[in-house]
């Protein structure tokens, strides 16, 4: 039988429900130092440690700068929604400069400049609206598909133009096709490229899910009925293993989206594998602006980061054209297909394909996640296991529960200021519910032999955060951090 032992160093206001896997006091003092200082580095600021480390490695930024950029991007995402609604037909797109933390918004009517400025963005005047550019881009899909050497199209917001990527010798025929489609000459730019995009499915072993007993892809994001992934990974009706399930719907080419309905016994969790022994919580699916820095998780290459270059990109794969993709500078390799793209804790898309690799770099395209959710009427699982929408969640019904109070920036260790000895593998769930006006986060830490290391965390902007973790034997503790705001909180821990 699995035994979970808690060592109590201090008395707090706590309720402990004893069950078959009871948390019991330990008389002897084990190895860890429960009073070792926590430190901001241990809590990885507001964002997951692995996400920040990947940004530092791939984007050459410090940890502090990575946090600043993610905070800036989250605010810019709200600005995008605001301006898209306010500007209507005059909206010509919005993008950000991640280096200088500047938001730019383009308008076709100069009378809208004050609206842009009130939203905190810099106004840019443009000839064409975003709606016009996207309609013209869509009209190019069919005629350009007949032109050899066209690898794809996308809208360059900053230049207010449709970019058509062509190989040597294809520019003239592509220009004729655009003219025949009725697209204004000044609205199109032809860009020479050597890119030959391909999908990133593979037929090798690995820690991922498998289709039909052979090919391998990566899970995108958990939904209440299973998970979403790339359509090219499997056709409708195809079976999967690890986890077991069936493709309930799949579209490719045209789009690159699929819904896998998993079999009983598979539990969807609102988190992404960080390939460092933990997970990163998913809080929602708010679209990040062009220019945002994003990170991808895949079963072949793990975590890698880059920048969003464009939305609604069209890519020509050997199997056919795919529309509506996110174009990025993130790298990927075969087997990463279907994997998760995140902007902070917000789901963005699933890996479709691209060119290059993670040694030399490249361009990778992603199927946006929200169209998948809408097409199949799915609910994204968020925040370490909770569903988006529905009744307000709460941190109740846990085996261990404790009430406390923290001032902004404060931290508290649980259970009861200490840790527990986990003998054997187990699923650990922890949560914190803080004041409605605050942002309290929860961290699970494991003793490494010399220090405490964060292995999982719930760190969204809501008043309730939670995490789940598949644990092996060792010493563990839970840390509550008052990231912003002050007040009372409830925390809970369940080991099963």
Automatic annotation (TrEMBL):
Gene3D superfamilies (UniProt xref): 2.60.120.380, 3.30.300.50, Trypsin-like serine proteases
Region Disordered, residue ranges: 383-418
Superkingdom as given in the UniProt entry: Bacteria
Biased composition regions of type Polar residues, renumbered to the chain: 395-410
Keywords from the named record: Disulfide bond, Hydrolase, Protease, Serine protease, Signal, Zymogen
Keyword Hydrolase: yes
Signal peptide range: 1-27
Peptidase S1A alpha-lytic prodomain domain: residues covered: 128-184
Entry similarity comment: Belongs to the peptidase S1 family.
Protein name: Streptogrisin C
Protein's organism: Isoptericola halotolerans
Lineage, broadest ranks: Bacteria, Bacillati, Actinomycetota, Actinomycetes, Micrococcales
């Amino acid at each position: 039988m699995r035994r979970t032992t808690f060592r109590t160093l201090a008395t707090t206001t706590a309720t402990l429900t004893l069950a078959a896997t009871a948390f019991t006091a330990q008389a002897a003092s084990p190895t860890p130092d429960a009073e070792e200082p926590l430190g901001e580095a241990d809590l990885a600021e507001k964002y997951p440690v692995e996400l920040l480390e990947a940004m530092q490695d791939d984007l050459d930024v410090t940890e502090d700068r990575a946090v600043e950029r993610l905070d800036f991007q989250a605010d810019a995402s709200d600005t995008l929604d605001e301006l898209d609604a306010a500007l209507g037909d005059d909206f010509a797109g919005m993008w950000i400069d991640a280096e200088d933390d500047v938001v730019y918004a383009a308008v076709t009517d100069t009378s809208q400049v004050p609206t842009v400025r009130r939203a905190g963005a810099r106004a840019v005047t443009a000839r064409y609206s975003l709606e016009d550019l996207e309609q013209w881009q869509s009209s190019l899909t069919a005629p350009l598909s007949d032109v050899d050497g066209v690898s794809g199209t996308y809208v360059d917001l900053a230049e207010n133009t449709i970019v058509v990527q062509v190989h040597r010798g294809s520019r003239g025929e592509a220009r004729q096709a655009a003219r025949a489609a009725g697209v204004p000459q000044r609205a199109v730019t032809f860009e020479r490229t050597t890119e030959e995009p391909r999908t990133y499915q593979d037929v090798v072993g690995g820690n991922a899910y498998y289709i039909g007993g052979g090919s391998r892809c990566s899970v995108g994001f958990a939904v209440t009925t299973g998970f979403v992934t790339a359509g090219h990974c499997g056709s409708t009706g195809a079976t999967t293993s690890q986890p077991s399930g069936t493709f309930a719907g799949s579209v490719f080419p045209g789009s690159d989206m699929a819904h896998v309905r998993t079999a009983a016994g598979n539990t969807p969790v609102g988190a992404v594998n960080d390939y460092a022994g933990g997970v990163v919580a998913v809080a929602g699916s708010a679209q990040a602006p062009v220019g945002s820095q994003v990170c991808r998780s895949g079963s072949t290459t793990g975590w890698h980061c880059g920048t969003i270059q464009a939305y609604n990109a069209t890519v020509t794969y050997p199997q056919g054209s795919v529309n509506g993709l996110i174009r990025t500078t993130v790298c990927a390799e075969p087997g990463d297909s279907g994997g998760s793209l995140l902007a902070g804790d917000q789901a963005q898309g699933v890996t479709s394909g691209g060119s290059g690799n993670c040694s030399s770099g490249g361009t990778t395209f992603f199927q946006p996640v929200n169209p998948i959710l809408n097409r199949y009427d799915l609910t994204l699982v968020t925040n370490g296991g909770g569903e988006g929408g529905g009744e307000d969640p709460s941190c109740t019904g846990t085996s261990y529960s404790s009430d406390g109070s923290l001032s902004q920036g404060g931290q508290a260790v649980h259970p009861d200021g200490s840790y527990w000895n986990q003998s054997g593998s187990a699923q650990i769930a922890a949560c914190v519910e803080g004041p409605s006006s605050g942002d309290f986060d929860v961290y699970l830490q494991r003793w490494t032999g010399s220090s405490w290391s964060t292995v999982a965390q719930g760190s969204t902007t809501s008043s309730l955060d939670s995490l789940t973790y598949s644990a092996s034997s060792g010493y563990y503790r839970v840390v509550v951090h008052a990231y912003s705001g002050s007040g009372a909180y409830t925390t809970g821990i369940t080991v099963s």
